[in-house]
């Protein structure tokens, strides 16, 4: 088992929840740069609109197991699409009961037990195309928001997305309707403002685009700091600045990397194993007079005892890991960048920030070069070593396949491995 938490996230010297939002204007031709940049992201939950993804692009082409991906691929043509990437350690689950076929919106929930608080966190990302159906979609979204709040009145809630409402001037006080555009859209915008106010949601993004409009909105019922991101995951669109949201009041437990003991069966002494199993008096197990469950328990006790005795074990995990194509020089730059970032956050020294920014740019450049070099090297060696090439292709094309973090049985939500196994 390989620990796939990103080093940037693990060594972040802040322990509050951090969000990232970007309208990416299509990922079909940007999967490589997206994959490279998300590996060095420091955010816990990343939200994207206009992904333009389809079923031909697998999750593994976008990210490794650092994040769990929640994607809606509503269209076969260009346009639309929403996605949330949530850090795997947050154990988020999709809330499909809040999805609607006529609304490009996706919902997830991060359980309170993971956050170490008494309140769940619900996160949604929505894309509202600027067409004639915009008022209907806003009305539908307002209904869902009201439903979620009614069902979970004490929980945290954050909604991000491209709302395409240039007729509203969003200020830190009260939003101002500019009486611009169709009357139906103005009325629906007013209805959205009233709904979010009644639900205790404030709009926190006041960044404007190249046309002095705010199209991407961040609604939340908890205080946060919203700012423009200095590290967009793909080239930024002039209409949609990338956003970072820091929820300073939602603290998350520090990341603890798990380690465990693993048998190395390739080094086992199988002559001694066979000899000891042949010499064992199995009659003591079969004739014990106990029930079947007790006999099976005794049988496996003997087997496991012999394995522990003659097969060596080693501790694995518990350390940060990197993609196979990372060079030693790149890893050193990442470590130095993390150190400079910690110093800047601690002392607010401009010199530390300059060092951090320089190393961040160097990391991006080296990361791109290492990835390209690995691809080229794999292609050149395909005749002599095709196994390496096809292992890489297979890893990038296959969908993630792991044991579920949660399951439902009747109306019960099961979150532990023991609870899930006991249901079968």
Please explain how this structure is put together.
There is one protein chain. This protein has 424 residues and is an alpha+beta fold. Helix content is 36%, strand content 21%. It has 12 helices and 18 strands. It has helices spanning 7-10, 31-38, 112-115, 134-151, 183-198, 270-279, 283-286, 292-310, 328-347, 350-380, 386-397, 417-422; strands spanning 16-23, 45-49, 67-72, 82-87, 93-94, 104-110, 121-127, 156-162, 168-169, 176-177, 202-203, 216-220, 225-228, 243-251, 259-263, 313-317, 407-409, 412-414. The protein has a 6-stranded mixed sheet, with no helix packed on it. Strands 5-6-7-8-12-11 form a 6-stranded mixed sheet. Strands 9-10 form a two-stranded antiparallel sheet. It starts with 6 loop residues before the first helix and ends with a helix.
Please tell me the CATH architecture of the largest domain by its name: 4-Layer Sandwich
SSE string, helices as H and strands as E: HEHEEEEEHEHEEEHEEEEEHHHEHHHEEH
User: How many domain regions?
Assistant: 3
CATH superfamily of the largest domain: Endonuclease/exonuclease/phosphatase
Question: What is the share of helical residues?
Answer: 25-40%
Please compute the radius of gyration using only Cα atoms: 26 Å
Whole-number mean pLDDT:
85
- Do you know the CATH topology of the largest domain? Deoxyribonuclease I, Chain A
The total of helices stands at 12
Shape summary: globular
CATH class of the largest domain: Alpha Beta
Spatial order of strands in the largest sheet: 3-4-2-1-14-13
Protein structure class: alpha+beta
Name the poorly predicted regions: 1-7
Distance between termini?
Answer: 25 Å
Tell me the fraction of residues in β-strands, as a range.
15-25%
What composes the largest sheet?
A: 6 strands, mixed
- Count of β-strands: 18
């Amino acid at each position: 088992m390989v620990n796939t938490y990103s080093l940037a996230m693990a060594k972040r010297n802040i322990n509050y929840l951090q969000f990232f939002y970007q309208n990416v204007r299509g990922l079909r031709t940007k999967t490589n740069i997206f994959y490279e940049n998300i590996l060095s992201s420091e955010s816990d939950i990343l939200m994207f609109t206009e992904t333009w993804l389809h079923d031909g692009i697998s999750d593994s082409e976008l990210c490794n197991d650092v994040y769990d991906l929640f994607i809606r691929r509503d269209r076969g043509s260009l346009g639309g699409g929403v996605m949330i990437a949530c850090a795997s350690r947050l154990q988020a689950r999709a809330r499909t009961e809040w999805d609607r076929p006529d609304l490009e919106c996706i919902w997830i929930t991060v359980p309170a037990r993971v956050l170490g608080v008494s309140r769940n966190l619900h996160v949604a990302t929505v894309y509202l195309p600027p067409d004639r159906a915009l008022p209907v979609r806003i009305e539908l979204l307002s209904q869902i928001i009201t439903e979620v709040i009614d069902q979970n009145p004490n929980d945290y809630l954050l909604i991000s997305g491209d709302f395409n409402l240039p007729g509203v001037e969003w200020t830190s006080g009260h939003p101002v309707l500019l009486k611009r555009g169709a009357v139906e859209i103005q009325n629906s915008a007013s209805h959205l403002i009233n709904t979010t106010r009644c639900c205790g949601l404030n709009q926190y993004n006041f960044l404007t685009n190249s046309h002095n409009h705010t199209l991407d909105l961040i609604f939340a019922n908890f205080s946060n700091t919203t700012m423009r991101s200095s590290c967009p995951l793909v080239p930024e669109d002039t209409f949609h600045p990338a956003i970072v949201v820091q929820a300073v009041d939602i603290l998350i437990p520090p990341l603890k990397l798990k380690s465990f003991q693993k048998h190395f069966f390739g080094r086992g002494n199988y002559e001694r194993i066979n000899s000891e199993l042949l010499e064992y008096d199995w009659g003591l197990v079969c004739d014990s007079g106990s029930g079947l469950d007790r006999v099976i328990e005794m049988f496996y006790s003997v087997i496991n005892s012999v394995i522990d005795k003659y097969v060596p074990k080693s501790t694995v995990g518990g350390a940060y890991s990197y993609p196979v194509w990372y060079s030693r020089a790149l890893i050193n730059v990442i470590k130095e960048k993390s150190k400079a970032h910690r110093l800047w956050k601690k002392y607010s020294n401009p010199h530390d920030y300059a060092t951090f920014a320089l190393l961040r740019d160097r990391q991006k450049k080296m990361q791109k070069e290492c990835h390209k070099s690995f691809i080229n090297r794999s292609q050149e060696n395909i005749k002599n070593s095709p196994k390496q090439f096809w292992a890489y292709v297979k890893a990038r094309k296959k969908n993630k396949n792991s044991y579920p973090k949660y399951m439902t049985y009747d109306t019960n939500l099961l979150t532990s491995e023991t609870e899930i196994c006991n249901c079968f």
